[in-house]
Specification:
Helix content is about 40%, strand content about 20%. It is α/β, with parallel strands linked by helices and about 250 residues long. Helix 6 links the parallel strand 5 and strand 6. This is 5-oxoprolinase subunit PxpA.
């Protein structure tokens, strides 16, 4: 069995962070590169794409609310028109750099608070999906399995990549436990690896309340912004191999 692993990268403050990202790239199959909304500079974007090409990864854009001060992790007051304009600016900047390096983007994944807000607001999800369909028709949309973005994408005939999380608790099959809840983040490595395997194999796992969940995903998110990410990525590869799985590279 094969499973796709994605990671949000290019989120460091200088080029030295790209070296750490490159370590993670050896163990994943696709990356989502920050494109100046919450993080990222033209130099970091270029180096990230170069490293991703060297690692033979699928490359996607990782746009967000235009809010570098809060790393895109807080909802902000912004008009729908300005938000969509900002998303275009972010994705187009990364697209332009990719073309200069003679490659094309594969997908788009929203970041942080915008990811969560789109899942909580079907109208926002539909507006964003309509924008992506019109401006970037060749790019797939990557988002939460069973959520609003999947509903919006399916309704518009868009290719959607269903994402699961190895290090987040779920309230139900379509809703992550908010980070504000105690133990919403899974910090125990063994539990992360087990949940990743259950998601990859469509096996039951525990939700936040101790009940059971079971659903299909196309890709599993490995968060790249923790110091342990490179080591966890390598551990995940070995754990998968021991459980009859391999990374879809």
């Amino acid at each position: 069995m094969h499973i796709d692993i994605n990671c949000d990268l290019g989120e460091g403050t200088d080029l030295s962070s790209c070296g750490r990202d490159a370590q993670i790239m050896s163990f994943i199959s696709r990356c989502n590169i920050a494109c100046s909304g919450h993080a990222g500079t033209p130099e970091i974007m270029e180096r990230s794409i170069e490293n991703a090409l060297h690692a033979n990864l699928k490359i996607g854009a990782h746009p967000s609310y235009p809010d570098r001060d809060n790393f895109g992790r807080e909802s902000i007051a912004i008009s729908p028109e300005r938000l969509l304009e900002s998303l275009c600016e972010q994705i187009s900047q990364l697209t332009s750099i990719a073309r200069q390096l003679e490659t094309e983007l594969d997908h788009i994944k929203l970041h942080g608070a915008l990811y969560n807000d789109a899942e909580a607001n079907i109208q926002l999800a539909e507006n964003i999906t309509t924008l992506f369909a019109g401006e970037y028709p060749s790019l797939k949309i990557l988002g939460l399995a069973n959520g609003a973005m999947e509903t919006a994408a399916s309704g518009q005939g868009r290719v959607f990549i269903r994402e699961g999380f190895m290090d987040r608790q779920y309230l139900n099959e379509s809703q992550l436990a908010p980070r504000s809840l105690p133990k919403a983040l899974i910090t125990d490595t063994a539990k992360c690896l087990n949940q990743a395997t259950c998601l990859a194999k469509n096996l039951p796992f525990k939700d936040y309340y101790g009940g059971k969940l079971q659903f299909n995903v196309d890709t599993i998110c490995l968060h790249g912004d923790s110091p342990q990410a490179p080591a966890l990525a390598e551990q995940l590869t070995h754990y998968f191999m021991a459980n009859g799985l391999s990374i879809d590279r």
